[in-house]
Design a protein that fits this description.
Number of helices: 14
Oligomer: single chain
Distance between the termini: 44 Å
CATH topology: Cytochrome C Oxidase, Chain A
Shape: globular
Number of strands: 0
CATH class: Mainly Alpha
Helix content: 55-70%
Length: about 575
């Protein structure tokens, strides 16, 4: 393992004093404080989660009729379908955990700030402006498959801006973890969340760089030649791998880091083999690399794809399942060793549920990939379409985005809200949010999964996306209609859960109704719990001397502090 950076990087003296932070709202415009940048990412990503869920409700109920459009119309269906994916992945899932990483990782590794702080701020503003342009392109009927050519290119430019902004933020997080750790903290002693953030950041740079190159080629071809594009309809199939498994596994690796942080703090123990913890997280990120599955090398009907793609896909799902299963086994064994049943706080429930759903999603993906490969290898013995072209894929997306992703969001917010805002969130509202998101995600997964498996309802028709809602000759209409309604009801319930989360934040933090938090309200183990809640704006005058990612646990085991005991009555409603 590599050693940490020099003592000079953490000394209080500096040749150039850091610029003082303007505490007013205007200071957000030129802030270089990782804590404020992280809060901005978190807040806006939750708003975009609401927008994505609302549009997904429209799509789900529009798919509940085989005779035509019931909610949307012929021109708007494709735009709303695609915007939903953009909003949930590039508007919520990636930027939320990037924001948490920008805030928490420097505190966990003992760094004075995020690496390239101005670039991190640029990452946020570039992401926010690009998302606004993306929305404008959709409103003007210019998304993929849109009818306005200039708007289609505007969408590609906006998406490229989103990708570049998120890559820049990921680089800041990765460099912080690799080069700005406190002297004496080796990589195999970093906190689990910091490690998971490094894994995700590294894989985002590698995989999103591929889509950035694709967007450049698509923009040139769309504007000057169209040698390989099938009109405006040819854009989406070449970029939709970003919204599918296995690529989605990369985006939820931080969820595993959150779950590990919470479960280890609950157990008051470290795993018996720390390297195994880091290795299993790394496996999930490695086997989530989905850039190979883009349209350039993966297309329906080619013999090399029918054989090679199926084998590779089965292997990726199997590797991701092995990684998630191994990590959950490590955490479960550690909790069992503690001989103490965890208190059912919102953070614990959401972390446990999120980890399990990632494992279920990997298992479902493995089953689907195996069925597809066997079916294609037998040259379609029953004539059915591969599951990867049906709403089976929508079910996987629901498990990872609505289920694991949003439960991970809920766990992270309740666990770190005291450190981010200095207030605890309401546990009563948290339990209600957990029930709504968990139950809604189950229905949002169940409906499209069964519909794809038994009625072959297509997720999307690439050569003409507007055909996706014309099902008389494609599906068993009665069964597909009912299952689409089930999925739509699930998304409505998820939307209510997201609304409860946002309301909880507004009341507990915005209105100051949440209980004020002390330095370590949960009995946490990692270095951020040594600092004030929340830490003061700007760069700290002194940084803790760290040689471990669990200094509070080390002190507890050495007998220098009493074990942290929390009773259920201490958790405010």
């Amino acid at each position: 393992m590599t050693d940490a950076t020099t003592e000079a990087a953490h000394s209080t003296g500096s040749a150039v004093a850091p610029q003082a932070e303007d505490p007013t709202a205007f200071g957000l415009l030129n802030t270089a404080d990782h804590k404020r940048i992280g809060r901005l990412f978190i807040g806006f990503s939750l708003l975009f989660a609401l927008a994505g869920a609302v549009t997904d409700v429209l799509v789900r109920f529009d798919l509940a009729s085989d005779s035509g459009h019931t909610v949307l119309n012929l021109e708007t269906f494709t735009q709303v379908f695609m915007f939903t994916r953009d909003a949930l992945v590039f508007g919520m899932l990636i930027p939320f955990f990037l924001g948490v990483a920008i805030y928490i990782v420097p505190l966990q590794v003992g760094a004075p700030n995020i690496a390239f702080a101005r670039a991190a701020a640029l990452s946020f503003w570039g992401w926010l402006v690009s998302f606004g342009v993306l929305v404008g392109a959709y409103i003007g009927n210019g998304g993929p498959a849109g009818g306005w050519d200039e708007g289609v290119r505007l969408h590609m430019l906006a998406l490229a801006g989103l990708v570049i902004s998120l890559i820049v933020g990921a680089i800041c997080v990765a460099v912080t973890t690799l080069t700005m750790r406190a002297p004496g903290m080796y990589m195999d002693r970093t906190p689990p969340f910091a490690w998971s953030a490094l894994v995700t950041a590294s894989m985002l740079v590698v995989s999103l760089g591929v889509v950035l190159g694709q967007l450049v080629l698509l923009y040139i071809d769309h504007g000057y030649g169209r040698h390989f594009l099938d009109g405006n309809y040819g854009v989406w199939p070449r970029i939709d791998w970003m919204y599918r498994t296995p690529q989605l596994f990369i985006y939820v690796v931080p969820v595993l880091g959150v779950a590990a942080e919470i479960m280890l703090a609950t157990a008051r123990r470290w795993v018996f083999e720390p390297l195994a913890l880091y290795f299993t997280m790394g496996l999930v990120g490695l086997f989530g690399f989905g850039a190979w599955a883009n349209f350039g090398i993966a297309g329906e009907g080619a013999d090399v794809v029918d054989g090679l793609e199926g084998i590779v896909l089965v292997g990726l799902y199997a590797g991701a399942l092995a990684g998630v299963g191994g990590l959950l086994a490590l955490l479960g064994f550690t909790v069992w060793q503690s001989r103490k049943w965890p208190r059912p706080t919102t953070a614990v429930l959401a972390a446990f549920g999120a980890g399990k759903l990632i494992a279920v999603a990997a298992l479902i993906g493995l089953i689907g990939a195996g069925v597809d490969w066997l079916n294609i290898a037998g040259r379609g013995v029953d004539g059915n379409a591969p599951l990867r072209f049906t709403t089976w894929v929508t079910g996987q997306q629901s498990l990872l985005i609505y289920g694991a992703g949003l439960l991970g969001v809920l766990a992270a917010l309740h666990w770190w809200a005291p450190k981010i805002w200095g207030r605890r969130l309401s546990e009563l509202a948290g339990w209600a949010s957990f029930a709504a998101i968990g139950g809604g995600a189950f229905l949002a997964w169940l409906g499209p999964t069964l519909s794809g498996a038994f009625t072959e309802q297509p997720q999307f028709v690439y050569n003409d996306p507007q055909l996706t809602t014309v099902y008389r000759s494609l599906i068993d209409s009665s069964a597909a209609e009912g299952l689409s309604v089930v999925g739509g009801i699930g998304v409505v319930i998820v939307l209510a859960g997201i609304g409860l989360v946002v309301l909880n934040l507004l009341v507990s933090v915005g209105m100051g109704k949440g209980a004020e938090a002390d330095t370590d309200p949960w009995g946490g183990l990692t270095p951020e719990w040594l600092l004030d809640s929340p830490p003061a704006l700007g760069q700290s005058d002194s940084l803790p001397q760290l040689s471990s990612g669990t200094p509070l646990l080390d002190a507890e085991l050495n007998g220098s502090v009493a074990p942290a005991e929390r009773e259920a009555s201490e958790v405010p409603a």
